[in-house]
Amino acid sequence: MKTAVFLGPSLHQRDARQLLEASYFPPIKRDDLAGMTDWDVIVIIDGQFGQSLAVTPKEILNLLDQGVRVVGASSMGALRAAELDSFGMEGIGWVFNRFKQTWIRQEDEVALSYAPHDLSALTVPLVDIAHWMETLRHADLVTKAEAAAIFRALKRVFFAERTPSKVYDAVAKAVGDDRAAAIRSEADIPDIKGADARAALNHVACMKSTEHNDIEMTV
Q1: Per the database record, which ranges form the TfuA-like core domain (predicted)?
Q2: 86 and 138 together in one domain
Q3: Residue 27 backbone dihedrals phi, psi, to 5 degrees
Q4: Quick one: pLDDT at residue 207?
Q5: Is residue 217 scored above 80 in pLDDT?
Q6: Is CB count within 10 Å lower at the N or C end of the chain?
Q7: Which pLDDT band holds residue 71 (cuts at 50, 70, 90)?
Q8: One-letter-per-residue 3-state SS of the chain
Q9: Burial class of residue 165 (count of CB atoms within 10 Å of its CB; 0-12, 13-18, 19+)
Q10: Do the Cβ atoms of 114 and 80 come closer than 8 Å?
Q11: Domain for residue 80, yes or no?
């Protein structure tokens, strides 16, 4: 299967290539999908907005109508998959499920700042905070009120300024220094976007393996 992956700060391309053999492109932007109807599978993980126009649902629908399989996860891919799964786009992972379960889907939940030379993440996206609070809540390590206060505090921090140190500063302001220290000792901030990116690439790798085995069996 001829496979393209649009990937950026969610997962280093070096690690991605160990999971899935494909052609890799930087975070997707408007018009990047033009002329890609001859691809079998397109995986959208990261995407641009702000500095460039975001890829539109219509661009993805055009590919789906041409029989191209489109998989989304982690970041922009999860957002578009939540919007288009009823039209055939496949969503993978926790972030996709979070967007799928709400009518209000905001790009700022997956937004982060990244280094242009190697696409590495510099700040913490809100979805990582949401997953962190969910994990702590399930383990009864934070109260519902504390989790809500922490999320609200970090939502007020501009995504390009939400560095790990500022995250912990905001947690301390929301619940106090002692509780913040206890929370920090229980669990690190998770990289849910990275986990979802890996899940999506493994999913496509399994698809390709299954197709290859089916072809061998019918020869």
Answers
A1: 46-163
A2: no
A3: -45, 135
A4: 84
A5: no
A6: C
A7: very high
A8: CCEEEECCCCCCHHHHHHHCCCEEECCECCCCCCCCCCCCEEEECCECCCCCCCCCHHHHHHHHHCCCEEEEECCHHHHHHHHHHHHCCEEECHHHHHHHCCCCCCHHHCCCCECCCCCCECCCCHHHHHHHHHHHHHCCCCCHHHHHHHHHHHHCCCHHHCCHHHHHHHHHHHHCHHHHHHHHHHCCCCCHHHHHHHHHHHHHHHHHHHHHHHHHHHC
A9: exposed
A10: no
A11: yes
Do 68 and 155 lie in one domain? The reply is no
Number of domains in the chain: 2
* 193: amino acid identity, one letter: K
The pair of structure tokens assigned to 132 is: 């962190």
Q: Is the pLDDT of residue 136 over 50?
A: yes
pLDDT digits (tens, 9 = 90+) for 77-114: 999 999 999 999 999 999 999 999 876 567 788 998 88
User: Do both 94 and 173 map to the same domain?
Assistant: no
For residue 203, tell me if it sits in a domain. Answer: no
Residue count of the chain: 219
Same domain assignment for residues 22 and 54: yes
